[in-house]
Amino acid sequence: MTADPFLSVRGLGKSFAGHAAIQDVTFSLERGHTLGLVGPSGAGKSTLARCLALFETPTSGEIRLDGRKATRADVQLIFQEPASSLNPRFTAAQIVTEPLLIRGIGTRKTRRQRASELMETVGLPRHAVETPALEFSGGERQRLAIARALAVEPKLLILDESFAGLDLSVQAQVADLLLDLQERRGLTYILISHDLALVWRLAGEIAVMDHGRIVEHAGVADLLARPQHPLTRELLDAARALSLEGAPA
Amino acid sequence: MRYIGRRLLHGVLLLVGVSVLSFVFAELAPGDYFSELRADPRVSAEAVAALRAQYGLDRPLPVRYAAWVASVIRGDFGYSLAYNSPVGPLLWGRVRATLLLTGTATFLAWLIALPLGIWNATARGTWGDSVSKVVLSFLLAVPDLLWAIVFLMLAVETGYFPAGGMVSPGPERVEDVAWHLVLPVAVLVLGMLPALVRHVRASMAEAIDSPFALSARAQGIPRRRLLFRHLLPAAANPLISLFGFSLGTLLSASLLVEVVMGWPGLGPLFLEAIMARDFALVLAVVMLSASLLVVGNLLADILLYRMDPRIRMK
Amino acid sequence: MTRRTKIAAALVFLGILHGLAIFAGFLAPYPYAEQHRQFPYAPPTRIHLSRLQFLVHGRLFGARQPGVVFLLGSDAYGRDVFSRLLYGGRVSLLTGLLAAFLSLSLGLALGTAAGFYGGWLDRLLMRGGELVMALPWLYLLLAVRAFLPLHITTVQAFFLLIAIIGGVGWVRPARLIRGVVLSARERGFVLAARGFGASDAYLIRRHILPLTLGVVLTQATVLIPQYILAEVALSFLGLGVGEPVPSWGNMLAEAQQYHALVAHGWMLAPGLAIIPVLLGYLLLADTLMAPAGRAR
Fold first, then answer.
1. Which chains touch A (3 or more CB pairs under 8 A)?
2. How many whole angstroms separate alpha carbon B13 and alpha carbon B9?
């Protein structure tokens, strides 16, 4: 129990043209847990996500995953728009196995098998493997995106506003899928969302970002009960004002 | 004003680029005006070399280019060996003829195309529109060359119109020129009309279907006012751009028509210069045609700038 | 008529026209240079089947000796206009097709490079393109032609024309393709693939090029007829394909004997033959470019 945490981020910073998008970001996360990342627009959440997913090279600090430096195979990012992050002309099989193809993993035959497996994992029918992506609904496409992310067997999954634009019931389904996967495979998630209800459902801990820094980081229950930072309080007030609390049953 | 200044500068730079490129091309070209002479066994190699030196054809490229630029600024456009005359005077008469031809044709084409296109746009879906579409499509498929030859043939046959040229012998009279203009202009107009009408129709249709036009009609604005005050200005933008784009095509069509019908414009001059390998003249015509295009586009830009407030916002 | 039907009809129509030209060697009763000096400007021959013979000398049909069959009359040298029309069509149509292939290939390569890599390459290509477009197209073609040797063999002329017409025509398709590539570059699935470690070549090949297909096809339908007309113009002016190989351009040049043209109307056949070809491409272009399924 004194071993390093699964994900350890220390002093992470990223600047663009002299302007610091994120700075001094330090936190850790245990395997199989979910961290919710919230904050106003422009707070640096997406930049942090991109740094964690190794799309950007941080200007300072380091990221350690499972005791060593993180590599692209370990971390996968699920984008905001399921429609645009998948090539509509590709078939489901082509989409979910594209990472394997790019990295030269496996043969055409093994990849095809893998495609069926992945589809099943995310709850999509196996026979839909040859269907072009544009024939899938929004929720199904997000599942495809998740399946694609799982293809390289990552340890950490970053979901950047991945639920925006999906129907509520679909959101619930995808959330259930993610929880199921987490339990079965011990996946670790970082969830970026404006939707506090979603964060409440999926996350065990929450980090609040503002102007590129983490201003508060606590367990979900603690944060909701005893918010420390004024920004956190603001966010919670706003969420409560907009929620169904107090609505007639 | 600054916008116009920038466009002007851009045009000038473009012309400079064209001139450099042309010079380099001419340099790479095998042979020159005196190549034919060299092939003649009666003329010695030294004589040809002397002629070359006399006309400065043996100096290095950057020197010749600099000299050319300097003389252009002075208004001297070089010397045509084929015509044995300075290039300048050769050009001006020809440019005037080409401008007269293309200007008249453009004016007439737009004069016909605008009402026709507007009518088509308002009468979409009726049989008149369908007939119009079929006729225009057919016209679009007829090459200018064919019109030119057929019209000349008719002119020769019937004698109603002069068979080519710009003037008949005798003092230059306006009606004489006008009479000679008819056929070449007719060819150019027939060539331009189909595409033009289509574009007018499309632009007007878009304006008519636009939300602001629908709301204007709902407010009960009378048709004529709607047309002239609201719809035409909206359709003007793409049409002015079209004018800019079509200039190149117009000049090219004009070249062909001038050659076929003997209209003394830039076209026939260009052709003769090429056949004679008179590169000074070729260069001059190249620069002139590029300049015409630049000026035409500049005018279109200025017009657009005046008419479309959105551009001024940039 | 549905969109599909129209496209199919246009393609079939064009296919037939091009096929007629390609198989000129079989369909034409006479070689293009064969003269019959005793029959200058002969009007079209009336067809009597008994005077014809079929499938002789590798040709579909011909005249039984000593007769002649000039389906579209003969020219000043007694050469069969119909045969020359077919052979000429082969030259003109093929030039248009090959030149279009050249300019589209160049446009695709340069436009993709400019759009994908941006930066100085993009600026260079766009500025270069502007220079090329600074002249009216016929002036440009003639200017380039001017700087090349005047007296060349017909074969050289054929390839030269293709090279010139295709070589200066890449600018517009390149610009359009560049636009497509620029926006495609930013699409989510491209970024995602990049995240998986995809190389530039992979991204271009698998994701971006397929998106340019639409533009390439519509450009083809617009450029091919333009290039056919360009060949006709150049050959007409004497700067393209010349004697004795016919092209619709140099055949039209022969038609310029105006005092007798009315009596020899068949000399206009090459000009008239262009019309259906252009109509076919026009129909194809219109159908392809009309937005599919627009509510009226």
1. C
2. 6
Enumerate the H helices of chain B as residue ranges: 2-28, 35-39, 45-54, 61-74, 87-122, 127-140, 144-158, 174-209, 211-218, 223-225, 232-261, 266-275, 279-307, 309-313
Specify the residue for token string 């530039």. C200
Secondary structure class of A46 (helix, strand, coil): helix
Mean of the per-residue pLDDT values for chain B?
A: 84
Residue C20 contacts A, CB cutoff 8 Å? no
User: CA–CA distance from B284 to each of A174, B88, B268 (Å)?
Assistant: 71, 9, 14
Minimum distance, in Å, between the CA of residue C1 and any CA atom of chain A: 27
Phi, psi of C217 (to 5 degrees): -65, -45
Do strands A213-219 and A205-210 pair parallel, antiparallel, or not at all (unpaired)? antiparallel
For C182, phi then psi, to 5°, come to: -55, -45
Integer Cα distance of A87 and B274 in angstroms: 53
B248 vs B229: CA distance, rounded Å: 31
What phi and psi, each to the nearest 5 degrees, are found at residue B265? -105, -160
**Strand partners for A78:** A159
- The whole-number pLDDT of residue B314 equals 55
CB contact (8 A) between residue A53 and residue C195: yes
Is the CB of A69 inside 8 Å of chain C's CB atoms? no
Distance in angstroms (rounded) separating the CA atoms of residues C172 and C226: 13
> Peptide bond before C66: cis, by omega within 30 degrees of 0?
yes
Residues of B in contact with C272 (CB under 8 A): 146
From residue C29, alpha-carbon distances to A210, B138, B185, C83 in Å are: 85, 30, 40, 6
Task: Count Cα atoms within 13 angstroms, Cβ side, for B69.
Answer: 14
CB pairs under 8 A between A and C: 38
Per-residue pLDDT 10s for chain C (296 aa) are 788 999 999 999 999 999 999 999 999 999 999 999 999 999 998 888 888 888 888 888 888 877 888 999 999 999 999 999 999 999 999 999 999 999 999 999 999 999 999 999 999 999 999 999 999 999 999 999 988 888 888 889 999 999 999 999 999 999 999 999 999 998 889 988 988 888 999 999 999 999 999 999 999 999 999 999 999 999 999 999 988 899 999 999 999 988 888 889 899 999 999 999 999 999 999 999 887 654 43
The alpha helices in B159-265, defined as continuous H runs, are: 174-209, 211-218, 223-225, 232-261
Continuous segment of H or E residues that includes residue C239: none
Q: Are A77 and A50 in contact (CB under 8 A)?
A: yes
Q: Long-range CB contacts (< 8 A, 24+ apart) of B153-157?
A: B153/C258, B153/C261, B153/C262, B155/B183, B155/C258, B156/C258, B156/C259, B156/C261, B156/C262, B157/C262
Q: Which of C183, C196, C203 to probe the A interface (max A CBs under 10 A)?
A: C196
Helix H or strand E segment including C31: none
C183 — contact with chain A (CB < 8 Å)?
A: no
Measured between alpha carbons, how far is A29 from C280 in angstroms, rounded to an integer?
Answer: 67
Q: Say if B and A touch: at least 3 Cβ pairs within 8 Å.
A: no
* Other CB atoms within 10 Å distance of the CB of residue C203: 20
Measure CA of the first residue to CA of the last residue in chain C; give whole Å: 16
Whether A85 and C210 lie within 8 Å, measured CB to CB: no
